[in-house]
Here is the input.
Amino acid sequence: MQAMVVIKMKTKRGQLKIQQMTIMLLAVTLFFVLAGMLVLVTQVSSLKAKSTIIQSDNAKLLVSKISDSPEFSCGSSFGTDMGSCVDADKVFNLKNLISEYGNGNFWGVEGLQIRKIYPDNNQTECTSSNFPNCDVITLIPGNGTGVSNFVSLCGEYNLNGQIFSRCDLAKVIVSYTGS
Amino acid sequence: MIKNKRAQEEMVGFALIIIIVSVILLVFLGFFLTRPNTQNVQSYEVENFVQSMLQSSTQCQDFYGYISVQDLISMCSSEALCSDDEDSCAVLSSTLTGILNNSWAIEQGSKYKGYVLNITSSNGEVSVITAGNITSNSEGTSQELPSKEGVSMGLLFNVYY
Here is the structure.
């Protein structure tokens, strides 16, 4: 009888230990699940901000390189090989063919504009006939957030039957959606 | 019984240590993931500005047409005149002032607080243009200009924000 009581007590103590361990394991698992959920919620909530940052970074990368792309670069058209230089004639042709570039889908941007900084001419829109007495070439009209970079806007024009070439300081402005 | 209790206390202590270490790790992880991007994005802007500025045409002309800022710097350094007998240094100064004023607006609420443009040659100072205040945050670039007639020239430009 006494032996039976001892065995029963030992079994009860063993069950208690198993219960304690189970509760402990459950608590630790619950803690990690909650912590994981917290991290997940934080990450998901910042997705929109991250998307804007990625778009902004892409726009900055594009704006820093676009003047050297074949659609814009001067190459050696104006005497020497020029970097950070945009050929106005190429830009006017590109403006006429912009629908073939998916109106911005080619570069993945909302808007694309070249704005002369100095000398300024009252924000007049440029055409091949009024260049260089103008300020803005709007390739893709857009209202997003703008990122800009300096370039030389170079072009040739006819003055009293003489052909002159001229470079002016300008900014390439790339806009993207987001704030 | 006492031995069992001590073992349980040790287990609880161990679990507590694991939890505390996990919390610290999570805090560090969270801090690392949400750390703002401190990379300065203006460096390309300043470098491109200097390059584009040097390529810009001025009002000074020679037989071939409008002279660029870069050529006007060497003309000013050798005290040469434009085709209409205008002083090359005066044209250079007015062109650079206009370009800088229009490019880096130093005004109330502007992110730019000041700038310094220093053009020197082996003969001495060619042009120094400053505006606004010098602060501890700056972005700048220096460029060596092609030497002409044995005169070496350099340009240093700093923007303060």
User: Anything to note?
Assistant: Residues 43-160 of chain B form a domain with the Ribosomal protein S3 C-terminal domain fold (CATH 3.30.1140). The longest strand of chain B covers residues 138-148.
